[in-house]
Amino acid sequence: MIPRYSRPDMVAIWEPATKYRIWYEIEAHACDAMAKLGVIPQANADAVWKAKDVTFDVARIDEIEAVTKHDVIAFLTHLAEHIGSEDARFVHQGMTSSDVLDTTLNVQLTRAADLLLDGMDRVLAALKARAMEHKDTVRIGRSHGIHAEPTTMGLTFARFYAEMDRGRRRLVAAREEIATGAISGAVGTFANIDPAVEEHVCAQMGLTPEPISTQVIPRDRHAMFFATLGVIASSIENIATEVRHMQRTEVLEAEEFFSKGQKGSSAMPHKRNPVLTENLTGLARLVRMSVVPALENVTLWHERDISHSSVERAIGPDTTVTLDFALHRLAGLIEKLVIYPQNMLDNMNKFRGLVMSQRVLLALTQAGTSREDAYRLVQRNAMKVWEEGKDFQTELLADSEVTAVLSEDEIREKFDLGYHTKHVDTIFARVFG
Amino acid sequence: MIPRYSRPDMVAIWEPATKYRIWYEIEAHACDAMAKLGVIPQANADAVWKAKDVTFDVARIDEIEAVTKHDVIAFLTHLAEHIGSEDARFVHQGMTSSDVLDTTLNVQLTRAADLLLDGMDRVLAALKARAMEHKDTVRIGRSHGIHAEPTTMGLTFARFYAEMDRGRRRLVAAREEIATGAISGAVGTFANIDPAVEEHVCAQMGLTPEPISTQVIPRDRHAMFFATLGVIASSIENIATEVRHMQRTEVLEAEEFFSKGQKGSSAMPHKRNPVLTENLTGLARLVRMSVVPALENVTLWHERDISHSSVERAIGPDTTVTLDFALHRLAGLIEKLVIYPQNMLDNMNKFRGLVMSQRVLLALTQAGTSREDAYRLVQRNAMKVWEEGKDFQTELLADSEVTAVLSEDEIREKFDLGYHTKHVDTIFARVFG
Amino acid sequence: MIPRYSRPDMVAIWEPATKYRIWYEIEAHACDAMAKLGVIPQANADAVWKAKDVTFDVARIDEIEAVTKHDVIAFLTHLAEHIGSEDARFVHQGMTSSDVLDTTLNVQLTRAADLLLDGMDRVLAALKARAMEHKDTVRIGRSHGIHAEPTTMGLTFARFYAEMDRGRRRLVAAREEIATGAISGAVGTFANIDPAVEEHVCAQMGLTPEPISTQVIPRDRHAMFFATLGVIASSIENIATEVRHMQRTEVLEAEEFFSKGQKGSSAMPHKRNPVLTENLTGLARLVRMSVVPALENVTLWHERDISHSSVERAIGPDTTVTLDFALHRLAGLIEKLVIYPQNMLDNMNKFRGLVMSQRVLLALTQAGTSREDAYRLVQRNAMKVWEEGKDFQTELLADSEVTAVLSEDEIREKFDLGYHTKHVDTIFARVFG
Amino acid sequence: MIPRYSRPDMVAIWEPATKYRIWYEIEAHACDAMAKLGVIPQANADAVWKAKDVTFDVARIDEIEAVTKHDVIAFLTHLAEHIGSEDARFVHQGMTSSDVLDTTLNVQLTRAADLLLDGMDRVLAALKARAMEHKDTVRIGRSHGIHAEPTTMGLTFARFYAEMDRGRRRLVAAREEIATGAISGAVGTFANIDPAVEEHVCAQMGLTPEPISTQVIPRDRHAMFFATLGVIASSIENIATEVRHMQRTEVLEAEEFFSKGQKGSSAMPHKRNPVLTENLTGLARLVRMSVVPALENVTLWHERDISHSSVERAIGPDTTVTLDFALHRLAGLIEKLVIYPQNMLDNMNKFRGLVMSQRVLLALTQAGTSREDAYRLVQRNAMKVWEEGKDFQTELLADSEVTAVLSEDEIREKFDLGYHTKHVDTIFARVFG
User: Fold this and answer.
1) Potential cystine with A90: which of A40, C338, C407, D318 (Cβ 3.0-4.6 Å)?
2) What are the angstrom distances between the C-alpha of C295 and each of B389, C224, C283, C308, D315?
3) ipTM for the complex?
4) What is the average pLDDT across D120-149?
5) Separation of alpha carbons B87 and D279, rounded Å
6) What is the spatial distance between Cα D60 and Cα D75, in angstroms, rounded to a whole number?
């Protein structure tokens, strides 16, 4: 987790204080359930809630852990300092550390997913607004980096919206994947604890009981979660790459917003670097790099080994914090992205109508010219444009062999941009409903 | 794609003949739609179906492609050889190659997903059957490879069932991700083709129209698809690893089925190697290795570049063929896996009751012994077991300090395996309903 | 392995016939060594060489393997068909299959490395030739896709040369990593075979004896090999990306060679797509995807498990064939890359001198103007260029506040391109010696 | 970077204070070189060294950066606060931020590599000592987790030594890869700074001048560096996995050292978990996960984009800190690993001589028995061992058909462990020289 690529809300989820708070809640809810089952006295269960408003002292717990060498025991010892050892003695009864740790991890991941969903909503809102704004802003579509046919900037935003919207749905599914808890004991048999405790704790913590666990919650869930974040990160890179291309000196169809006060820009006004989108490209790699270790974590020996743990200590916070930051950076970027419609037109016209050559070719054929002749006619005029810098439409209108087949109106019509944008509304309806 | 790790059904999906058949269907359905729109004559559309029962000549198409250097044109030329160039002239009108290629890829991936779902169903059926069979077959649960508490072999199968069942649901979602088609033209604007054509073709091919495409269908869909296969592969490795552990000489709780006639086994009867599950471990890596390039494929320049194509030519067939093979190998393995319940008991009793020490400790404490004293009592008897090979229960029954607190019945009860299996039915109900 | 991305020489290394030939040589050399040690009769060793010129019948071996279910035994049986069972009976004595298989794999990888080195040499030669050709061809250097300061096309080629040359040295080291053989028996103790046999076979096959093996050659060697190929692939992508950028419509500083006859180009002369470099981008991903499974292959259980094998069956041929093809595609691309020096100048001058603003700023400061004043002077003239399309040098020369500090000659000197290229020879000497 | 998986020495390399110290040294040495070239006054260069013993105030630099939004400028401003703005004005002249940042990164990586080499030396020393100690400690070799032939624990340590020694040599090469510096200006042309400055600074900082750079040092170097760390991490996992297997309850041939005072062990003496090696398995994944983003970082647009930067901010420290910690954890583990030779013998004898069946088979054949008969004889005795728990040697000696061919001495000789260990010295000489 790199401070400069972090937002406080997501960081907070992964702070020790948050973790201890979740541990406390799990233990307290478990006591409630056990009391209800008659396994422990109701009074002791009630007493645990005395610590309801306590902010646990992380330094003190660390101090105890330095002695006990066991994090959960250290916490329980500290808890006893708040509620008294007599009342604390039934806390954690029949449970194993993993019951608390794994359920806590999933609470944290679930909360992280909620924040990520907020981030995606902000990105979606921005994309939608900009799509509407530039629905009819014509620009050249490019395949292989080469001019192809006209499209609109609104369609570009709209397709990113559709992609992010798929990402959002994937994230909802991924959140569901890891929204489970387990209080099932040393090897998952509930030998020492009733399944009812698990049910109560999960309900209280906003989770579903894991149908079958071992000492741990199965890690295919987490693999799916991180794989999904990796896909979303790749979509961020996709958008970032489009902006980076649009901002390059020779294209300049858009620029990342550059505040008036930002130093150094005015003496070299062309030197506004798309550093936010380049950064997003790197952040996407950082998010993606958690996918492989998460997949490798799925295989555990028998009822558990602890190889997954160090991996999750790293990728749990790092990946969610980075993606959260990236989503908000992306949203801000889109919200303020400066679009240059005139440059779009200038770029499209760079080859003075040549992008329309396919339409002319088709028109000639449809009007009865043989494919070979049509090709020859288009080619000879195209070459004048390409080699001598002439205007394609003008050349066609001056070519008697062409005008013998197509009228001036018919030729002019081929250069009508409306031809290319006539289905934009249809597509928008598909995307935005 | 390695022949020995391939099943014919999946291989067939990726054969050139299949591809050309799908191309043909897309073109023919597109003609139908265009005829209905009045864009091309009905008669020509009808004529295309004359080739309905043709098996296209792959070698001939290759021959043409060697000249035209363009695969779709080569196919269309060959199609014309079947239906006549006059009737063929409207085929593909207004479409671009990617319309055909991308829609075809998704048809293939969708069919591949269907085969994979069949494979998962077979795995699930095998796991369920074996879970039921061994619901009450007690074995020791292990954390960190070390004996922990008893569980049952049925629970092991059941948790793999639950994991594969999650995998199945993920695969259904992944199939939906790539079950889209696009007939939207050079940059996705439908400039030269009506959206109705796309709708008709997709409906006929069992796909949904891509709401917004560029020249290509967006690759976040494919990334999600391959990421999902990677998670499923990891679950296969998880199961395979369990079997590999069970079969190792010192454990021998299970063995891959070894047919009577298989050579070399009888002179070294202990030397039956778990080669199928080791192989599955390797195959899982092969499936997973498609995840990163699929994620890298998401970013395309503007309305498309072709960097994704070579990647998909490889991972499309390789990954689905390998996973398909792995699923059926896994299913066969589970179906015939030889289980050794007696060895399970022998292994569990290797430490003569020591795995029950925790229960005894708890019982002493609950009976009023201080934590320190209880620990001392358990420890001194445990040490006799560990160091002198005594039996734990016998030692406890002979320790007057212990019997002063716990009766013989109470001590014996702590060694009752039923304590550990009492919730197996509950868990089975959760998993199998 | 995808036929269209394959070269026959590399494919041949991985063909069954080649494999059997290597098996034969290993067995024959082993017999020689055993005869010399007196372990088997010399006559029998000599007899094995009777098959020296035999082309083994792959179909026949497959036929036998279908019965024996063991590839090495099938081969030995077939060998006996050639040299007679009497003479064949000492072949393979004291060896295990892995001795043959692992040594063969490394022979194949070593040969593959040699072919790859040839490919890199071709790439290096091409890069060097083009670097020399365009040593002084000025173009604008870009950071973040934005014009920065002038550089030359020769420097671009030279840095790719230096990168590929590092790659070559890495590949030499990687080749050495896998140029080992092992004939050490079931668990690597030489219990049934003398180490002298290993030494002789390795010497004959161009390998070094593995200092210590188990049943297999340690897989960290192969991991390092494939990791190195992954780095080289990334360098290919780096070069490919530069070309893709150079070819995009708005930049057009270079184009992949497009033969006169290639169809479709003349009607849309701007539509020459950089498909080779886009393809190289995808191929780089395919090569890289072997890195992770190769790393995962390092961990084997005890003296070997066979999880690595299926992975290597795939990535051994696929990765080397793909990289080999990519290197030659890259070399051909560079050799024929069409460079447009005039477009380079036009692009550089797009902002009429603004890229020189930093030098002017510095000159003003050095001439005594305060930093603030210098900035203000540069800025006001830069803005005229940016907003009104004026020429920077002209504006500066017309600004009396500027000319009060800098003479016309001093100002003009700031626009001298020689300033930026004065160390090109120094850099070339560093790179090319 | 996770505190619990960190060693202070490696963490220190990546602290802001260290970074600023390196920046300072680079700037000061650059001033020296520029003074020598006559570009700046010697007095100013000398003055920079006034800050030689200053510990830069990180908080103060952060404060300035909050205003300037530029880290290098913030540092230079702070430096001026120490040496006076008059003397500071020539600092950084003609340089770009990347000159400082990239050279600094490589200084840090080089130092990190040195620490890692120390860690590897400690691992190597531990492996060598344990190899010598257990050179002749016989244990069963296992392929596929199944008993094969005897080997020794010393050979196990020796092969890990050889693997780590290869890793060390790879790391030396990787260190050399990133031990370069660059002071070459905005696009690498030395337009504003003499190459002599680069040479001087690099020599002083222990680096080699990068032969050709752009704005940045090429990232194939860093890719190779991180790929190498990934291979070493995989070797750590390989060793860790061996220990995890050895410690599992049914095998128990070794245990991670467990201090007397460590709580909870005595009541369940069998429950000593191999948590260090499981942790190493996870840490290996964390180290490896940097490989893919490092490979993706190689491709930069034109003379640089900044997408690599965020990746390196994370993997630079995280990967080196984690690997450093893992190496020392591994070394400590090996140093203190508790080996159980008696258990090794017990395990080997679990099948009462069956592992020798291959030798008996061979002896019978060599004594003239037909292969079929020999097989039948071995098989019928092996089956008694396997099914009835008899001793293999005893059965053979009691089988008159066997003793008709082999004398008692010849039979007994086949069970001599010395047969399997006779080449241990040869192998040790190869490994340890």
Assistant:
1) A40
2) 43, 8, 20, 10, 18
3) 0.96
4) 97
5) 69
6) 9
Q: Could you tell me the two tokens for D276? A: 């260090």
A90: left (phi over 0), alpha (psi -120 to 50) or beta: alpha
Nearest to C426 by CA among D179, D300, D210, D96: D210
Among C118, C52, C115, C50, which Cα is nearest to C87's? C50
Give the Cβ contact number of residue C118 at 10 Å.
15
- Give the minimum alpha-carbon distance from A352 to chain D in angstroms, rounded to a whole number: 28
Complete DSSP assignment for D207-223: -EEPSS-SSS--THHHH
Q: Which residues lie closer than 8 Å to D429 by C-beta, 6 or more apart?
A: none
Mutate to test the interface with C, among D153, D302, D330 (most CBs of C within 10 A): D302
Distance from chain centroid for Cα D183? 31
Query: Is A113's pLDDT higher than 60?
Result: yes
Query: Is the separation of the CB atoms in C282 and B308 below 8 Å?
Result: yes
- Catalytic residue status for B370: no
Domains annotated on chain C, with CATH: 1-93 (1.10.275.10), 96-349+421-433 (1.20.200.10), 354-414 (1.10.40.30)
Closest CA to C95 of C177, C16, C29: C29
> D236 and D326 in contact (C-beta within 8 Å)?
yes
In whole angstroms, what is the distance from residue A283 CA to residue A328 CA?
12
Q: Between vectors from CA D93 to CA D91 and to CA D94, what angle results, nearest 5°?
A: 155
pLDDT at A386 over 90: no
Report the Cα–Cα distance between both ends of chain C, in Å, rounded. Answer: 38
Task: Give the D window 168-227 contacts with C, CB below 8 Å.
Answer: 170, 173, 177, 185-192, 195, 209, 211-215, 218, 220-221, 223-224, 227
0.90 exceeded by the pTM?
yes
Q: What are phi and psi of B84, to 5 degrees?
A: 95, 140
Contact yes or no for A144/B301 (Cβ under 8 A): yes
The number of beta carbons lying within 10 Å of the beta carbon of residue A38 is: 8
Question: Region C214-219: what's the mean pLDDT?
Answer: 97
Find the helix or strand (DSSP H, E) in which D318 lies.
helix D307-336
Asked if the model's pLDDT at residue A261 lies above 80, the reply is no
Token couple for B115: 């085969």
Residue A137 three-state SS: coil
Check if the beta carbon of residue D253 is closer than 8 Å to that of residue D289: no
C208 vs C197: CA distance, rounded Å: 12
A214 vs B370 pLDDT, higher one: A214
Chain C residues within 8 A of D141 when measuring between CB atoms? 186-189, 214-215, 302-303
Cα gap B321→B7, rounded to integer Å: 7
Kindly state whether C307 is in contact with chain A, defined as any CB-CB distance less than 8 angstroms. Answer: no
Going by their DSSP bridges, the two strands B138-143 and B146-152 should be labelled as: antiparallel
Q: Dig out the tokens for C284 from the structure.
A: 């780089």
Choice among A369-378, B220-229, D275-284 with the minimum mean pLDDT? A369-378
The number of C-beta contacts closer than 8 angstroms across A and D is: 98
Distance of alpha carbon A247 from alpha carbon A217, whole angstroms: 46
Q: What is the pLDDT of residue B264?
A: 45
Coil/strand/helix, residue A385: helix
pLDDT: which is higher, C268 or A266? C268
State the alpha helices, DSSP H only, in C69-96. Answer: 71-83, 85-88
- Taking CA atoms, D360 is separated from A365, B264, D149, D377, D413, in Å, by 86, 14, 13, 10, 10
* Alpha carbon of A241: minimum distance to chain B alpha carbons (Å): 7
Residue numbers in chain B where pLDDT is lower than 50:
264-265
- Here the tokens at position C380 are 């006001």
Q: Which H or E run contains A143? A: strand A138-143
**Shortest Cα distance, chain D CAs vs residue A70, angstroms:** 10
